[in-house]
Specification:
about 270 residues; globular; mainly alpha; MetI-like fold; about 75% helix; single chain
């Protein structure tokens, strides 16, 4: 039975590995430092000397803005779930989070386009994209924080209550030292999720060219995700397609860095 289950699980390991090898094989000829900091060649869709550095920074800006917005809301919901919510309220909150997590990202993008871009007149901007990404990562971030709080031994919380500690003191003196690594793990996973989204920011935040650095929160940005999307449509331009593959590798490496940091932190937490 053990070997049978391992055989069934084997595709889950082989397919991502095969996909990564396939992407690397197509991107290898285009990967270089000059591609990131300043392209030496030009094509119908790539300006000479531009490089991918603005796209990388734009992706990171969107990720950071989303997590800055989602983090206080996620912490508040997790603490409400742990301290004040009744059993029905806890079940209702978890059901809502699961429903929000199941909504396709493109639906969030269309809602952001209608509400933020048009109705509120934010335009295609860093602010609009950050808000939509914050809504997308909020269920994941909140669920991870709720699970981190649930792993706290009940005896420690009861002991703190018996000593007369207030809820604020319990949070600061008992819970925070125990769950900070779990919270940080959830935040890293939320960062990786924000970096992997394309459709929402395609409608609300990003343009292909004409912008190197956003002038304000209401200015558009460029990102690796949408850069790949636009370049991949230039099938007749071999250089543009090669840059798209190379951009995909850079984006995968960024996502992998945050995911591996989260995994390492979780392993450290389990050992402690």
């Amino acid at each position: 039975m053990k070997w049978f289950l391992m055989l069934l699980a084997l595709p889950a390991f082989l397919f991502p590995l095969a996909s990564l090898v396939y992407i690397l094989s197509h991107a290898w000829d285009s990967l270089s430092w000059s591609l990131i900091f300043g392209a030496e060649e030009s094509s119908s869709m790539i300006e000479a000397g531009q490089g991918l550095w603005p796209q990388i920074i734009g992706s990171l800006w969107l990720m950071l803005w989303a997590c800055i917005l989602a983090l206080p809301v996620a912490i508040s919901l997790a603490l409400f779930h742990a301290l004040y919510a009744s059993r029905p309220q806890q079940r209702g909150l978890m059901m809502i989070l699961q429903l929000l997590q199941g909504i396709p990202p493109i639906v969030y993008g269309l809602c952001g386009l209608i509400v933020l871009v048009h109705l509120l007149h934010w335009g295609i901007s860093l602010a609009a994209g950050g808000v939509i990404l914050a809504v997308i990562v909020l269920p994941l971030l909140t669920s991870n924080m709720i699970h981190a709080l649930e792993r706290i031994p009940a005896e420690q919380t009861e002991s703190a209550k018996s000593l007369g500690l207030s809820p604020v003191q319990i949070i600061g003196r008992v819970w925070v030292p125990l769950v900070w690594s779990g919270f940080l793990t959830g935040l890293l996973l939320a960062m990786a999720r924000a970096l992997s989204e394309t459709a929402p920011i395609l409608f609300t935040a990003t343009v292909f060219s004409g912008v190197d650095w956003p002038d304000s929160m209401l200015s558009p940005v460029t990102s690796l995700q949408t850069h790949i999307f636009y370049l991949a449509q230039e099938g007749s331009d071999a250089h543009a397609v090669g840059v798209a593959w190379a951009s995909a590798v850079i984006l995968l490496m960024l996502i992998l860095c945050f995911s591996l940091l989260a995994l390492a932190l979780r392993r450290l937490e389990e050992k402690v």
